[in-house]
Amino acid sequence: MRTPRTLPRVLGPAEVEAVLDALNTRRDRAMVLAMLLGGLRRCEVLGLRLGDLSPGERQVFISEGKGGHQRLIPISATFFTAVGDYLDQERPIVDHDHLFVVLRGPTRGRPLSADGLDEILDGVRRRTGLPRLTCHQLRHTCLTRLREAGMALEAVQAQAGRRSIESTRIYLHLANAWLVKQYLDASAAIDADRTNL
Q1: Which pTM was predicted?
Q2: Dihedrals phi, psi of 103, to nearest 5 degrees
Q3: Residue 170 has pLDDT above 90, yes or no
Q4: Kind and range of the H or E element at 161?
Q5: What DSSP string describes 146-165?
Q6: What share of the chain is helix, strand, coil (3-state, %, to 5)?
Q7: Could you give the C-alpha distances from 109 to 77, 91, 141, 150, in angstroms and in order?
Q8: Are residues 139 and 150 in contact, defined by beta-carbon separation less than 8 angstroms?
């Protein structure tokens, strides 16, 4: 018997604002925006290096994608503004090119770990009252919103770094308002065809 796949709930606009308001550092804001605006996975955010960013083209090169796959994706200027603020005001001088680093304590300057990012989200969950908030939910919110805004499913697949269009269809759970609008538009077209017979 197959267990049904459950997908994370998409964050609403007020919840997104609450998450962004609950972040303590410019670094944290840039990491969350990478997931919310670019659809990056947690491992992809942590794997970013300075040379992966192309602010002029508003693109990010994902060199450590799932399954070792690489891709070049567009991302909002809002993300690059947040990264610029972090680089100018918080990131210590280090001898490596990892983008996101530890800001305080004995490991200051070392690349941020998955545990470090999880700890940041733990704090956000406590401050926002969103107990189920995860990196995957942030990514899923981005990809769902892109599809709702009219981005072709194949483009969402490329943005997400998914290998197959079928897995993108399974993954992408669209919000009810978008589905209702799509249905009503299609239904109106069918009704118009029937009346013209």
Answers
A1: 0.84
A2: -95, -25
A3: no
A4: none
A5: HHHTT--HHHHHHHHT-S-H
A6: 55, 5, 35
A7: 26, 8, 30, 41
A8: no
Percent of the chain exceeding pLDDT 70 equals 84
Mean pLDDT, rounded, for 96-124: 97
Residue 48's nearest CA partner among 62, 27, 69 is: 62
> What pLDDT band is residue 156 in, cutting at 50, 70 and 90?
confident
36 vs 122: CA distance, rounded Å: 17
Tallying the residues shown for the chain, one arrives at 197
Specify the pLDDT at position 149: 83
Q: CA Rg, the chain, in Å? A: 19
- What is the DSSP code string of 51-73? GGEETTTTEEEESS-GGG--EEE
